[in-house]
Amino acid sequence: MTKRAESKYKINRRLGVNLWGRAKSPIAKREYGPGQHGQRRKNKPTDFGIQLMAKQKLKGYYGNIGEKQFRKYYDEAVRRKGDTSENLIELLERRLDAVIYRMKFAVTPFASRQFVNHGHITVNGKRVNIPSYLVKDGDLIEVKEKSKGLTAVLDAAQSGERDVPEYIQVDHRQMKGSFVRAPKLSDVPYPVQMEPNLVVEFYSR
């Protein structure tokens, strides 16, 4: 595993979970935390610690979103009507890089972000290279014609690691799909338990 890949998976060992459910995760071999004293870190977490860990899991899952941007999602989730934790999940799942990951056009959220950054994706026929772009219901997302034969895309589409959730429609032969509807927390296929309610508690302290 390259140093770059290892750095992405460090969060798995730090949090003690396999965030993306991948066989490559080091947590599969070493369940204790990273560092010289990782095996001895067994202190009972405080309420603050539990809330912080829930936030780190959610941020980490979506490719380690920066704190400033993540806080903006929380503020927007609060502003919207309805359950704040469900609103937060919806906003995260509407990110273009998250949608590309769900469509299985990329193997990891990190690869998905890079794929969007490099201009391989169009939304409703227009090139979009902003990973945080929020997709709307019914938007048509497509891999650009010149990019459809890329090995990384083909490998991701054929991977059996994940299934495409019901709120996403995708045609892997034509490399395009659409965002059907806003998902609920129970609709999102997280490999580990996510607790956005604890994230809300963290920010509303």
Automatic annotation (TrEMBL):
Q: Where is the Small ribosomal subunit protein uS4 N-terminal domain?
A: 3-93
This protein's GO CC annotations: ribosome
* Protein family per UniProt: Belongs to the universal ribosomal protein uS4 family.
Q: Which gene encodes it?
A: rpsD
List all membrane-crossing ranges: none
Q: Does the keyword Transcription apply?
A: no
- Pfam families assigned: Ribosomal_S4, S4
Q: What does this protein do?
A: With S5 and S12 plays an important role in translational accuracy. One of the primary rRNA binding proteins, it binds directly to 16S rRNA where it nucleates assembly of the body of the 30S subunit.
The organism's taxonomic lineage, starting at the top: Bacteria, Pseudomonadati, Pseudomonadota, Alphaproteobacteria, Acetobacterales
Q: What sequence ranges are listed for the domain RNA-binding S4?
A: 94-158
According to the record's subunit comment, the protein's assembly and interactions are: Part of the 30S ribosomal subunit. Contacts protein S5. The interaction surface between S4 and S5 is involved in control of translational fidelity.
Protein name according to UniProt: Small ribosomal subunit protein uS4
Keyword GTP-binding listed? The answer is no
Gene3D superfamilies in the record, alphabetically? Ribosomal Protein S4 Delta 41, Chain A, domain 1, RNA-binding S4 domain
Mind telling me which InterPro entries this protein's record contains?
A: Ribosomal_uS4, Ribosomal_uS4_bac-type, Ribosomal_uS4_CS, Ribosomal_uS4_N, S4_RNA-bd, S4_RNA-bd_sf
User: What UniProt keywords apply to this chain's record, in alphabetical order?
Assistant: Ribonucleoprotein, Ribosomal protein, RNA-binding, rRNA-binding
